[in-house]
Amino acid sequence: MGHIGKQTVVYKTPPVIINAYSSAGPKEQQGPLGEYFDNKLPDELLGQDSWEKAEAHMIQQTVQGLLDRACKLPSDIQYIFAGDLQNQVVASTFGLKDFNIPFFGLYGACSTMGESMSLASMLIAGGMADLVIAGTSSHYCAAEKQFRFPLEYAGQRTVAQHWTVTGSGFVLLSRNGEGPKITAITTGKIVDLGITDTFNMGAAMAPAAVDTILTHLEDTNQKPSDFDAIFTGDLGNWGVAIANELARKSGVNLSPILNDCGKMIFDDKRQETDAGGSGCGCSASVFAGYIYKQMLKHKLKKILLVPTGALMSPGSSQQGNTIPGIAHAVCIEM
What is the pTM of this model? Predict the structure, then answer.
């Protein structure tokens, strides 16, 4: 394992993603990727009496599904890295507490999948663990209640507003085994260009996404065409347009290979999701449900996964603060 350039770590013995498992809500199942999700939730409440408890239950189902698929017991796992959008990451806490696995709770907003996979891979590559789980989740109803308005308020959505994904994705990383390998990571920096519109997350996150992607390319001496695809997490339609323009101004053309999980998960016109999807569960469910399976089929051999996050809270927005962004890049090769 070696640190190169400004922010990148390259693994001499790359950790292997030996399994992945995804969960998705009803609206997500109706989108273009619906057939790829492993655990198709029947509704948003899952037999619970609140949206928040439903998200915790979804996390429990996703991790149990991952363990079952890998034929592993919780006692086989050394650590689990996870987070969500609820205050103090309580969805992960209550969803994972009964597994009795040593737990690192993370908050990277919608970039949490990149953060959890980065830290888990460093732990394995550093020789401190053999089996580690990484993942995250989000829930549309819980996120709307916390960050915008409760659904009962029936507020009017703006055209730039993302639809928070009800979904979850977890991966099992191993020192040995078969599957796609994490060959390098680039840890993002906080980037703040002064965006204050809480209904336009794409504009807040796009500068951070471009900063991390260009840094990864520079640190590793690569160009965009060296990848089959670059997948950002949550930029949506507006954010992708901004990201492509920012990259062009830096002399790099990302448009031929830049994809976005928030654009992929919904049919914006048919499903009326406007700008597209976002939320921790967006890149997590799309990677674990779709991208990972495409890599196993060798339809994708080398990708850069770049989950993107808006580092805000209801309190910071109410105080008139800007919305800093962050993005973490994970290079995955088959």
Answer: 0.94
